[in-house]
Design goal:
The complex is a heterodimer of chains A (about 350) and B (about 260). In chain A, about 45% of the residues lie in helices and about 20% in strands. With about 350 residues, chain A is α+β, with helices and mostly antiparallel strands. Chain A has a five-stranded mixed sheet. In chain A, strands 6, 7, 8, 9 and 10 form a five-stranded antiparallel sheet that branches. In chain A, a hairpin with a 2-residue loop joins strand 6 and strand 7. Chain B starts with 7 loop residues before the first helix and ends with a helix. The chains are: A alpha+beta (about 350), B alpha+beta (about 260). The interface between A and B is large, with 45 and 39 residues.
Chain lengths: ~350, ~260
């Protein structure tokens, strides 16, 4: 469409969209946006619009794919047909298959998969509108969806890209910079700064590359702040609602409180950043674990319900044998279908 | 039909509610869930709509591209509708090429728009026999709590109403709105134990004997209809369904489409 601009950075050091070279595009996110998913996140980053959902841990079919000592992670990066200027064919492309693979590998180091042997954790990232940097946007959203689903993790993953235009390194490329720039280096990092994803195309010197990682780390740190804030907002809200609703049920409210106490502590404005960071990360793991406890309690409730259903079913069976036929034949069939 | 695993007890429960004239979420039989419709949510699409029907969420994007017409209608634009039952929307959806239910729902939506003449296809001709505008309607299902069909169809026409023909961008004349002449709206009902209920939620869709979708237009004419599910419908029930669907469709058109 548009031709290559003459200059990407003006004499004041500002880019075409008015950002400084080390400034990311405005980002906002919201979690818990899809009612059927176990965890979800909608993220806008510049003109990128990305929706991520997590399902699981859930049973993995076919069973031969199950891993006996840990959960399998599946990641699907997908672009909507209408997400770009020229419509793209729906379904997986070679590009999206590759991105799905590296993005999955960006999460494998942080998700505590050994807690769920034989299970699968499905991560779906849908790019609804694309404007450069969709894989990093998808990873940021997926990270939040995992946290929202209460999947135990060592910490959040944050991602952004560094590129080069006019011989100068810039953080978080937009579309023209991506199309006509000299390099593009997307990276994902844990909160400790470990790199879980890195790709690169283009041309940079080793010095530039080193500087690029530093810029990226700074970008990821900013994104991590936004991610943490989003989580805190949601769980603070949850606290108010759940506690008032569940006053009668001592067990549940106790669990909810223990989930949220650390977060309340964090609402105190940041003092001594590094220490605070660490405690928040620990809290996140605790959070995830605590939430997991809540979930497993709910899970037990479900099983109880199932048992009582079965009992009720048996009672009916005594009266009506044809009912039993339906019960036993239909349900396994459905199972196979879903498999 | 949905693949949700549903216990026989649940089926009993919904059936017994029906006998008392009630539904699981407290609606009356002819009451739709709350609808939230936003248009132009995707700037890069030529037209788009995000629709929330109860908790069911669907995003429809319209793209236009110049391309070859069909040999039997050399002077008319082309409509291509596709639907993806995205695995993001339900634990029961899987990635991969569209399955029969997605193809069915996409085609019902397509027929409603095509057969009602909602798009004036003759105005989408660039050079007769050589080049016409192809209208792609892509339906992205984001959250499934039942009745994707009606959400898609309402979303599709809403997205079309906001769509622009990108003539300037493609170097083929000037931009103009996509020529829309009608507003087809689909309304789906399910038959549960002999009672017809409008806008089924997921459980109702799963237990129902059959499901009927009726697409009607501004003048009350019907441009599409589809029955699915393994039950049968009597003529009386069908006619009742049609009149209810037309009435609901005109309400939907008034509240959600006429102000776009």
């Amino acid at each position: 469409m548009s031709d290559k601009p003459e200059k990407f950075i003006d004499e004041n050091g500002l880019r075409l969209d008015g950002r400084r070279v080390d400034e990311i595009r405005p980002m906002k996110m919201e979690i818990g946006v899809l009612s059927r998913a176990d965890g979800s996140c909608y993220l806008e980053w510049g003109k990128n619009k990305v929706l991520a959902a997590v399902y699981g841990p859930r049973e993995l079919h076919p069973r031969r794919l199950q891993k006996s000592d840990s959960a399998l992670i599946r990641y699907r990066y997908n672009m909507a047909a209408f997400s770009v200027e020229d419509r793209i064919r729906p379904g997986p492309s070679r590009r999206s298959i590759e991105i799905s693979k590296v993005s999955r590998e960006a999460f494998e180091p942080v998700v505590l998969t050994h807690l769920y042997p034989g299970a699968v954790i499905d991560i779906f990232a849908e790019v609804l509108q694309a404007d450069a940097g969709t894989r990093t946007a998808a990873i940021n959203a997926a990270s939040m969806a995992l946290a929202d689903a209460g999947i135990p993790m060592k910490g959040l993953v944050s991602a952004c890209a560094v590129g080069k235009v006019d011989g100068q390194l810039i953080l978080d490329l937009d579309k023209p910079e991506d199309n006509y720039g000299d390099a593009d280096i997307p990276m994902a990092m844990t909160s400790e700064g470990e790199i879980t994803l890195i790709q690169m195309d283009g041309d940079v010197t080793p010095e530039e590359f080193k500087r690029a990682i530093e810029m990226c780390r700074e970008g990821c740190r900013q994104i991590l702040e936004i991610q943490k804030e989003t989580l805190q907002n949601k769980f603070a809200k949850l606290n108010e609602v759940e506690v008032s609703d569940d006053e009668g049920e001592a067990d549940v409210s106790a669990l909810v409180e223990c989930t949220l106490d650390p977060l309340e502590g964090n609402e105190i404005p940041d003092v001594g950043e590094s220490e605070d960071d660490e405690s928040i990360e620990e809290d996140l793991v605790e959070d995830a674990e605590a939430e997991d406890e809540v979930e497993s309690v709910e899970g037990q409730d479900d099983t109880d319900d199932l048992y009582s259903d079965d009992e009720a079913g048996e009672q009916v069976e005594e009266f009506d044998d044809s009912f039993k036929d339906v019960d036993e034949e239909d349900i396994p069939e459905d199972d196979e279908e879903t498999a | 039909m949905s693949n949700e695993v549903m216990s026989v007890l649940k089926k009993d429960y919904i059936y017994n509610l029906m006998l008392k004239g009630k539904r699981e979420d407290g609606r009356t039989f002819d009451e739709m869930r709350k609808i939230d419709l936003r248009t132009n949510v995707i700037e890069k699409a030529e037209g788009s709509a995000w629709i929330k029907l109860g908790e069911t969420e669907v995003l429809v994007g319209v793209k236009l591209q110049a391309g070859a017409p069909f040999p039997d209608s050399p002077g008319e634009g082309v409509i291509i509708t596709s639907m993806e039952l995205n695995p993001i929307a339900s634990p029961d959806f899987e990635a991969g090429p569209p399955k029969e239910s997605a193809i069915e729902m996409a085609r019902v939506t397509d027929r409603g728009i095509r057969e009602s003449g909602a798009i004036d296809l003759s105005k989408l001709c660039i050079t007769e026999g050589e080049e016409v505008w192809i209208v792609f309607i892509d339906i992205h299902v984001l959250n499934n709590t039942g009745n994707i069909q009606d959400a898609s169809s309402l979303g599709a026409i809403a997205a079309l109403l906001t769509a622009t023909v990108p003539g300037a961008r493609e170097g083929r004349g000037e931009d103009m709105p996509v020529p829309i002449r009608d507003m087809p709206v689909s309304v789906t009902l399910v038959d549960i134990g002999g009672e017809m209920m409008v806008d089924p939620d997921l459980d109702e869709e799963t237990v129902c004997d059959s499901r009927i979708t009726i697409v009607s237009n501004q003048d009350g004419s019907i441009s599409g209809m589809q029955k699915s599910g393994n039950g049968a419908l009597t003529e009386e029930k069908l006619l009742k369904a049609v009149s209810l669907a037309c009435q609901k469709a005109s309400e939907l058109r008034e509240t959600h489409l006429l102000n776009i």
